């Protein structure tokens, strides 16, 4: 059995649920984790509400190898992610001396007000996720990785944390363009999926450049040979199709 | 007390979790529901797995006024949304005669294979969401609204179902550009938020056209007077700021 590493993602923020801000992090993190060999199994989006954050965090952190969070680590009253995570883990939270020291280099005494100092609040025992270009750090506590909501900062944090993550046997993926309508291949495709149980076969309709209905078929597996066998069966099925579009 | 109508959103599909497809539905539905006066409280993204779909659906449908789902209603073996929903509700599922009749008008006997007929599988007691331009219908069963994953079709389905939804007192929203860094206003903003409990005040940093750090402040409330009072306090605070950027 190969070691499978899983993840949940928790997106925190009223602005996503109201539609004011369109999330750009889910797609990025999904693709990033897939490339690392980590299976993203579930995403949840919750509001800036302590009870909602803790409930979702607890559901995810006990179920998956890692939980990634985005959002809610800024300087304002609606940024409650760090405190919620400390509460979920039952640990204290205080201004982290190393972060405060960096803030003192960056800001004058007048500027380093209570709001900015909030960004130095880190749960006890957490490991900082920081670099010279990241102002307010993220952190890793247990299996939970807490990141910024601003995409560019979140992406910088992912690059820092990625090398430290346990990664699994990577999911391999191959795509073929069917040049057929999804409805014409659904039957034989089901048989192929049944005959190749260690693969995952996905079917994604799209409109091609000739404005015709077309389909991408994606075969995924952690085993290269099994993937190749299923893909061969898919291609054989497509070659034998006798349909018009 | 005003009647508050809530919603959960369940996005179904391996392709979103693998990063292959970037979701465009969450942001659209969030904004659409906000405009209807329905509060989107939570979003979950799960894979094409019956157990995962049912667990998420049950968590959401008992908690919120409505649950919207996207994805998994096509003709292939990985399209298992309708069957999962029938199972969650404990009702039967079969080919819906009205849908089959429409399919017969559209497709020849050879084309109307088992795969395409799958798209006519509708749980018992569900109400169809369909129009002349929608091929495979969505449906509404209890408080669950099942829609396509393809954004253009999902959007057409939302337009059909929206007039039938109970809508709440609409959340009003006003935005002001702070011309200040988030860290400089976090303290006074917290006091304003505390003093105006029936409003929700959000703070969203951005880089403005002069490449300076700037902040949008959003005040939301269902009560126009309370919103106006909180926004007045925010603007007074901003006018009294003595900070440089």
Automatic annotation (TrEMBL), chains A, B:
All residue ranges annotated as the MoaB/Mog domain in the record: 8-168
Highest rank taxon of the organism: Bacteria
PANTHER family noted in UniProt: NICOTINAMIDE-NUCLEOTIDE AMIDOHYDROLASE PNCC, NMN AMIDOHYDROLASE-LIKE PROTEIN YFAY
Protein name (record): MoaB/Mog domain-containing protein
């Amino acid at each position: 059995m190969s070691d499978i590493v899983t993840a949940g993602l928790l997106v925190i923020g009223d602005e996503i649920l109201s539609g004011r801000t369109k999330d750009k992090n889910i797609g990025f993190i999904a693709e990033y984790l897939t490339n690392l060999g980590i299976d993203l199994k579930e995403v949840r989006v919750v509001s800036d509400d302590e009870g909602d954050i803790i409930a979702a965090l607890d559901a995810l952190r006990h179920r998956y190898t890692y939980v990634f969070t985005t959002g809610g680590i800024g300087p304002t009253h609606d940024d409650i992610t760090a405190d919620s995570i400390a509460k979920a883990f039952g640990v204290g939270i205080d201004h982290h001396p190393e972060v405060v020291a960096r803030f003192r280099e960056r800001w004058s005494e007048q500027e380093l007000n209570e709001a900015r100092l909030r960004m130095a609040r880190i749960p006890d025992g957490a490991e900082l996720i920081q670099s010279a270009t990241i102002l307010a750090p993220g952190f890793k506590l247990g299996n939970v990785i807490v990141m910024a909501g601003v995409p560019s900062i979140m992406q910088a944090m992912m690059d820092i944390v990625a090398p430290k993550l346990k990664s699994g046997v990577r999911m391999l993926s191959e795509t073929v363009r069917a040049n057929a309508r999804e409805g014409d291949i659904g039957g034989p495709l089901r048989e192929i999926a049944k005959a190749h149980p260690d693969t995952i076969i996905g079917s994604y309709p799209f409109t091609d450049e000739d404005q015709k209905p077309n389909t991408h078929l994606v075969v995924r597996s952690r085993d290269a040979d099994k993937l190749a066998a299923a893909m061969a069966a898919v291609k054989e099925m497509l070659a034998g199709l006798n349909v018009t579009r």
